[in-house]
Write a structure and sequence with these properties.
Blueprint: E1 8-14, H1 19-22, H2 36-51, E2 59-62, H3 66-78, E3 86-88, H4 105-112, H5 114-122, H6 134-154, E4 159-163, H7 165-176, H8 180-184, E5 193-198, E6 204-209
Parallel strand pairs: 1-4, 2-3, 2-4
Antiparallel strand pairs: 1-5, 5-6
Protein name: Phosphoglycerate mutase
Family: Belongs to the phosphoglycerate mutase family. BPG-dependent PGAM subfamily.
Organism: Rhodotorula mucilaginosa (Yeast)
């Protein structure tokens, strides 16, 4: 089990399904709530952490958006750590989709063209109008991770991060030394904890994905 592995502990969790995820809308920095399914995903993520013996975190980090905050609160409730210190920062917010924000993804393809929307969604360094590419997202997420989160992990603190698909991709790209092409094609499931064990220099020793149980 993950709890028996050696190395310093970092757990990353993408928030559960939000109301805008359900409607297939570009969400970005907008602040919809979780759906009932999203809340259930968060509960399941917490239960899977508990089953793995991961119930003794020292600190948690999240964005300022409620879908990540609520996911974290539910997970902490499930693992019996509701009083855990939590740091919230917009550096961990989702990628800003600019003019795509609020658009249905199918409608966006009709408006801008399927190829163009695909480029905005799946290129590393081409931002949508008025928004952020994954590269730009990383430029705000990684300094925060490197200054605030990584030092705690490296000193042996057990750290839980509940955030968003693209802010977490930024961190994963650095942790796993992935290429731009590899990271844009990396899918993160909602509510599923990713358990990393790191050495004292932050190098990944092991990775485990705690999948939902059927």
């Amino acid at each position: 089990m993950a709890s028996n592995a050696s190395g310093n502990l970092l757990v990353l969790v993408r928030h559960g399904e939000s109301e805008w995820n359900k409607l297939n809308l570009f969400t970005g920095w907008k602040d919809p709530a979780l759906t009932e399914k999203g809340r259930a995903e968060a509960h399941e993520g917490g239960k899977n952490l508990k089953a793995a013996g991961l119930t003794d975190f020292d600190v948690a980090f999240t964005s300022v958006l409620q879908r990540a905050n609520t996911t974290l609160d539910i997970i902490l409730e499930e693992i019996g750590q509701k009083g855990l210190p939590i740091h919230r920062d917009q550096a961990l917010n989702e990628r800003d989709y600019g003019e795509l924000t609020g658009l249905n993804k199918d409608d966006a393809r009709k408006k801008f063209g399927e190829e163009q929307v695909h480029i905005w969604r799946r290129s590393y360094d081409v931002p949508p109008p008025g928004g952020e590419s994954l590269e730009l997202t990383a430029k705000r997420t990684l300094p925060y991770y490197n200054e605030k989160i990584a030092p705690l992990v490296e000193e042996g603190k057990k750290v839980l991060v509940a955030a968003h698909g693209n802010s977490l991709r930024s961190i994963i790209k650095q942790l796993e030394n992935l290429s731009p092409e590899e990271i844009v094609n990396t899918e993160l499931e909602t509510g599923v904890p990713i358990v990393y064990r790191l050495d004292k220099e932050g190098k990944v020793l092991s990775k485990e994905i705690l999948k939902h149980k059927n």
